[in-house]
User: Fold this.
Amino acid sequence: MTFVGLAVTFLGFVIAFASLGITDSTGGRMGLVLAGIVVSLIGIMGVLTPAYQKTWIWKK
Amino acid sequence: MTKKIVLVLAMVACLARAATVLAQAPAAQPEPAAAAPAPAAAAVALTDADLKAAVKPTDRANGDPDGSLTGTANDIAIADAKVGLTLSDVLNQIGANRIGVNFAWTLLCGFLIMFMQAGFAVVEAGLCRAKNANHTMMMNFMVYGVGMLAYFLIGFPLQMGGAGAIANLGSTPVLNSEFVIHLFGKDIGLFGNTGYLLMHHGTYDVAIMVVFLFQMVFMDTTTTIVTGTCCERWKYSAFMVSTMFLGAFTYPIFANWAWGGGWLAMLGANFGLGHGYADFAGSGVVHSVGGITALACALILGPRLGKYTRDGKPNAIPGHDIMWVLCGCFILAFGWFGFNPGSTLAMSGNGGLRAASVAVNTMLAGMTGSFGGILYMWIRYGKPDASMSGNAFLAGLVAITAPSGFVNPIASAVIGLIAGVLVCLSCEFVERVLKVDDPVGAISVHGTNGIWGVLATGLFADGKSNYGGSWNGVAGNVTGLFYGDAGQFVAQLMGVATLLGFVFVLSYVINLFVDWFVGQRVSAKSELAGLDLPEMGAVAYPDFVLKPEAAMTS
Assistant:
């Protein structure tokens, strides 16, 4: 799950960065960048963190 | 000597005559009477006065108690003693004075920032247990050297190699090599490529030395943030390797994108998003990069033994010296006066005097931040918690770091107040929801509030600052969403997305490799004993009897 989490987190950056080429409108870019931030947060908090909690030293 | 003075006065008269001609030209048609020859008359008067007022070396035979004889035309450096003082000498002296003032300001601010290392060291050591104090202090001690070495070898060229001319420091034209890719019809700058070892491609240059020193202490601030989050369980060898990568790659790459002419800085010039990503002194570049890297490392390391019960409830592990913690906060606040005002890189020209406003904004945000934190803790828990008060103080300072150059004092106070509350909420969230063990609260202080500072710039920048008429190559002043520029806020959001989606992933992958090859975490036995003896070979307090390790909560 660690690599899935990293991939999702990076995907958020890709979405935000791609907004520069997808649209010229400020509103459109704002929406896409916000979507990218949300996706990255899901990757960190929704995927990586639960995976990390399973690796605690006393759970191994 | 008289010949020299006459020569100078002749030059001054010529200049004054030229100025008079220039002044007369536009004024002649609409209002001939307005083209007064006053400058020429003044120049003549100046000539006579100068002749009379010229200070002779003998005038100081009895000293100069009131300072009126010190710092005169006699002190202007002469290029050729045979020719004597020339107009060129005078003009060169004026330029040298301006750049000298800026050099002195920037260097002194860099020295202040360097002293922040001491603040971080005692804050982090105070917040860890006594059995780990030597280890924590030694991490903070060596982070300075390890980070600097990495930055000297690799980091500085990557960050600043394509930064271009920095006018306030006398220009740095040789920093002109940025690696770019062509995307979306624009050049996307990714990293600099000159200045290796401060010798490559003409970078053995006094202005570049100033840039290096100032940027290096910024980078070192980033690296020392991570040691706080990872203390009490980080293997010393892993810390050194991880810090090396942070100083060599992670920090410089994002710093290049934001400050070195990279693609984030160019969002305004290339894509019409305000003035591009604006981060005056580094809420994002320094603090968020440090906080986010700390989060990545903490996830890899896992929590300290005893921090969480088996069903995931957090235990409080208090630090061993709250006096050092709060004293360290004051040291950091002192250093912050180098961090933020120093980021003007000038006191003379191009908006350098705005440093006064930046300094006041910094004080105000720190003050309201501490108020926010104290009030939150007092209301929620009935007591004004000391360590959280310190963290809230720092949170206010972190949050104002990016906007300090662009916002007014009221906005600064608001930004700091929000930061003070936000750091308390974030600490609780990180500890109880994410279940990430952060002994000093660095993820919240620097990561969360660094992001808040970046966003606050895009909201509160009032368009009144002026640093030479443009920022990131876009004419005009940085203006936030609340003052009418939505594009600036999008640029700031893009910076946040990059921090979360790129910097975090890069930091995580790097530290995962460090974990595989070096091993990040100490053994459970060492951790329970305290890292001072197993890792460092000596305890911090050999004369003290330390409290034995409490039985772990099941």
Observations:
- Chain A has one domain: 2-52.
- The interface with chain B takes residues 2, 6, 9-17, 19-21, 24, 26-27, 29-30, 33-34, 36-37, 39-41, 43-45, 48-49, 52-53, 55-58 of chain A (CB under 8 Å).
- Chain A has a mean pLDDT of 92.
- Residues 2-52 of chain A form one domain.
